[in-house]
């Protein structure tokens, strides 16, 4: 049966909504016209383009097998937030409609937000148990019956959910312990939650009808497949992506299956700690990205002038040093970027110093170095750090990765928890731009100028779009006006 999830796509303006400390910089205008445009035009267009399921959430559903009725699932009202008790439903589909993974089934309004009810699997709507526009439906109350086939819809015409059909709400997870992170302290390594283990062959396997049919067609034993749905439920995508491992004694189609390709291979050993942290961060942190083009023509000129006065024993100043200095100085303009999310949800921790992590090393052998208190250092001191990099396991408050040395234009870095942002720098490109001096004697209409592309990855819990854009503008000003960094 279908699994559903909540994908928050619209926050409605309410008088009691908390104001961000940087709200005065926000370009957003909360008007009825903007809300209607988002609901009726923008959001449907985005769903039509993406058509992919949202992450699983705390939803309740129960699978039923009955001699009187076809196999079906009774879906309960989902708990879309830890404090949600009731919600208002606006259906986007009707009884008998077919849906596929990624379709929006309904819009559920809570006291703070309007959230799309998105499907993760395929099926048909057998019965809507609450009417369109139903108000204050309790969490866990039956709201929908989902069936496998259009032929099964008619059997639920007079269906009425009984008390025993109400899915049990999952127990609340205990609040996580408060983090003990401080700047320049070693980051604790926490392994990501393991995927749901495959069920023993003798126990009952929970799987969607499409997954069961697909597994039967492919000859894959369901009990060998780890489910990624709610409560370990096996979805059709799990069956399609399943690859028998060497340790599984499964037999597909009556013949033993080899583990992977028969081609020759070499094993590359990597850091399991780093891999675990990357997976955990990408799963838990709501990333979004902001990209800007920056002229480095002035920085290159100042760099050449400064290096001309250095002795042979000095390693010289690089463009990367200007970038590091500008990024750390921008924290003074927008300090809320130099922050981290407190995992118990009690607030945001803003740091007084900017400890910068730099990614160093070669592909396949990367490590990081730390420049503590970078906002207090001059170009010479920063250059000393970058000229003699020392690998460090200490986690700072902000990270920078330089991809320009590989000819990469830009990238979208994974945020290093508990940091709130990470910056990726691309290669220097020479571009043709309009010449502001055009019209003067001997001046051409266009000129050549050097640019880089910078992308800021942000944790949306800590840094909203307006604040991230404000920090990028401060960073850009520092790089494009390098003399201001020397004052």
From TrEMBL:
This protein's GO CC annotations: pyruvate dehydrogenase complex
Domain (Lipoyl-binding) ranges: 72-147
Residue ranges of every copy of the Peripheral subunit-binding (PSBD) domain listed in the record: 206-243
EC class name: transferase
Pfam families xrefs: 2-oxoacid_dh, Biotin_lipoyl, E3_binding
Cofactor: (R)-lipoate
Gene3D superfamilies, per database record: 2.40.50.100, Chloramphenicol acetyltransferase-like domain, E3-binding domain
Enzyme Commission number(s) from the entry: 2.3.1.-
Alphabetically ordered keywords of this record: Acyltransferase, Lipoyl, Transferase, Transit peptide
Polar residues bias locations: 1-18
A Gene Ontology BP annotation from the UniProt entry: pyruvate decarboxylation to acetyl-CoA
GO MF term list: dihydrolipoyllysine-residue acetyltransferase activity
Region ranges (Disordered): 1-24
Family (UniProt): Belongs to the 2-oxoacid dehydrogenase family.
PANTHER family: DIHYDROLIPOAMIDE ACETYL/SUCCINYL-TRANSFERASE-RELATED, DIHYDROLIPOYLLYSINE-RESIDUE ACETYLTRANSFERASE COMPONENT OF PYRUVATE DEHYDROGENASE COMPLEX, MITOCHONDRIAL-RELATED
Name of protein: Dihydrolipoamide acetyltransferase component of pyruvate dehydrogenase complex
């Amino acid at each position: 049966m279908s699994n559903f999830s909540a994908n928050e796509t619209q926050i409605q303006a309410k008088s009691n909504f908390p104001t961000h400390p940087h709200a005065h910089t926000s370009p957003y205008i909360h008007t009825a016209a903007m809300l209607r445009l988002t609901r009726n035009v923008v959001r449907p267009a985005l769903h039509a383009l993406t058509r992919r399921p949202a992450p699983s959430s705390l939803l309740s559903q129960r699978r039923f097998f009955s001699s009187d009725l076809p196999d079906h699932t009774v879906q309960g009202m989902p708990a879309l937030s830890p404090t949600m008790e009731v919600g208002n439903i606006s259906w986007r589909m009707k009884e008998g409609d077919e849906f596929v993974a990624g379709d929006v089934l309904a819009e559920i309004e809570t006291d703070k937000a309007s959230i799309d009810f998105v499907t993760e699997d395929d099926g048909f709507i057998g019965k809507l148990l609450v009417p369109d526009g139903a108000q204050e439906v309790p969490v866990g109350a039956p709201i929908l019956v989902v069936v496998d086939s259009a032929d099964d819809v008619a059997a639920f015409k007079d269906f009425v959910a009984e008390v025993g059909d109400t899915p049990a709400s999952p127990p609340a997870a205990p609040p996580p312990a408060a983090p003990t992170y401080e700047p320049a302290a070693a980051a604790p390594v926490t392994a990501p939650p393991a995927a749901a283990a495959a069920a023993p062959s003798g126990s009952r396997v929970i799987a969607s009808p499409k997954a069961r049919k697909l597994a039967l067609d492919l000859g894959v034993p369901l009990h060998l497949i780890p489910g990624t749905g709610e409560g370990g439920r096996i979805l059709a995508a799990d069956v399609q992506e399943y690859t028998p491992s060497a340790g599984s004694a499964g037999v597909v189609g009556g013949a033993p299956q080899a583990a992977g390709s028969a081609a020759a291979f070499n094993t590359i050993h990597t850091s399991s700690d780093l891999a675990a942290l990357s997976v955990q961060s990408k799963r838990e942190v709501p990333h979004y990205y902001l990209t800007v083009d920056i002229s480095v023509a002035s920085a290159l000129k100042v760099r050449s002038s400064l290096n001309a006065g250095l002795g042979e024993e000095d390693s010289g100043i690089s463009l990367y040093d200007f970038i590091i200095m500008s990024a750390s100085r921008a924290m003074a303009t927008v300090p809320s970027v130099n922050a981290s999310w407190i995992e118990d949800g009690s607030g945001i921790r803003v740091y007084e110093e900017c400890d910068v992590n730099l990614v160093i090393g070669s592909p396949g052998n990367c490590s990081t170095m730390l420049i503590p208190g970078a906002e207090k250092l001059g170009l010479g001191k920063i250059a000393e750090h970058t000229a003699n990099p020392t690998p460090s396991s200490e986690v700072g408050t902000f990270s920078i990765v330089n991809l320009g040395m590989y000819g990469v234009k830009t990238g979208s870095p994974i945020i290093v928890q508990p940091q709130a942002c990470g910056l990726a720098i691309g290669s220097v490109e020479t571009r043709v731009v309009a010449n502001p001096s055009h019209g003067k004697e001997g001046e051409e209409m266009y000129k050549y100028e050097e640019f880089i592309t910078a992308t800021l990855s942000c944790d949306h819990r800590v840094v909203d779009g307006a604040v991230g854009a404000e920090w990028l503008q401060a960073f850009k000003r520092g790089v494009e006006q390098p003399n201001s960094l020397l004052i």
